[in-house]
Design brief:
Layout (H helix, E strand, L loop, with lengths): L2 E3 L3 E3 L8 E6 L10 H7 L3 E6 L16 H12 L7 E6 L1 H15 L7 E4 L17 H11 L4 H4 L2 H20 L12 E6 L7 H5 L9 E6 L10 H16 L6
Parallel strand pairs: 3-4, 3-5, 5-6, 6-7, 7-8
Antiparallel strand pairs: 1-2, 2-4
Helix pairs in contact: 2-3, 4-6
Family: Belongs to the thioesterase family.
Protein name: Thioesterase II family protein
Keywords: Hydrolase
């Protein structure tokens, strides 16, 4: 079952009685459907809201955002209409940056998230210079293949590739042109997750997320590359559940 909340939010397993909500933001080229298994695993204890960026699936005719901060502005505005319960944010890769910026906006408005889960992304203060979005289609496709996060069957179909490349390019531009604007540290707990062989982020770059919160912080390192979470989904979901439960009891996660 999929329940849409406007164009932006997908609820695959609505849990209106859940005490808390988890807002999930995908990687470059990713879609809300990536989080269907997360929603299934956490329901009905957590109401999972998966953000659908413009430029993919049923929104494929819309222009993708090419600026992470503007995307965060739009997501934060959408959340104002669907929240009302304590919420946490989970983002992978580009989604981690957007989740961080959304958390900043929420806290500026007086809403402290229950937790911020950031996966597969360097801390905002640790910039890497990358220009994949400026390459031609073949170069962009080679990068997508290297990251091993997209179904190879999709990438072997020229028509599908033609449809998905604009979203990938826009997302890569958003990720690669993002520049952290210094400001107050978050108050919410932050859990950083990464793969030990991720070519996009070192363990030290993931550890640096500690600098961006005055609340509890932890780093968990898994075997694997940029999409380590595909092989460790159960462990990642268990951590999310543990942290959200700990916060509900006003305790710091173990």
């Amino acid at each position: 079952m999929t329940v849409g909340t406007g164009e932006w939010i997908r609820r695959f397993h609505p849990a209106p009685q859940a005490a808390a909500q988890l807002v999930c933001l995908a990687h470059a080229g990713g879609a809300a459907s990536y989080f269907f298994p997360v929603s299934k695993a956490l329901s009905p204890a957590v109401d999972v809201l998966a953000v659908q960026y413009p430029g993919r699936q049923e929104r494929r005719r819309e222009t993708p955002f090419e600026n992470a901060e503007l995307l965060a502005d739009a997501v934060a505005e959408q959340l104002a209409d669907v929240t009302g319960r304590p919420l946490a944010l989970f983002g992978h890769s580009l989604g981690a940056t957007v989740a961080f910026e959304v958390a900043r906006r929420l806290e500026a408005a007086g809403i402290t998230p229950r937790a911020l889960f950031v996966s597969g992304r360097t801390a905002p203060s640790r910039h890497r210079t990358q220009w994949v979005h400026l390459g031609d289609d073949e170069q962009l496709l080679a990068e997508i293949v290297k990251m091993e996060g997209t179904d190879p069957a999709m990438l072997s179909d020229p028509e599908v590739v033609r449809m998905i490349l604009p979203a990938f390019r826009g997302d890569y531009k958003a990720a690669e042109t993002y520049r952290y604007r210094p400001g107050p540290a978050l108050r919410c707990p932050v859990l950083a997750l990464t793969g030990d062989a991720d070519p996009q982020v070192t363990v030290a770059e993931a550890e640096a997320w500690r600098e961006h919160t005055t609340g509890p912080f932890d780093l968990r390192v898994f075997p694997g590359g940029h999409f380590y979470l595909n092989q460790h989904a159960g462990d990642v979901v268990a951590l999310i559940r543990q942290w959200m439960t700990a916060r509900a009891g006003h305790r710091a996660p173990p």
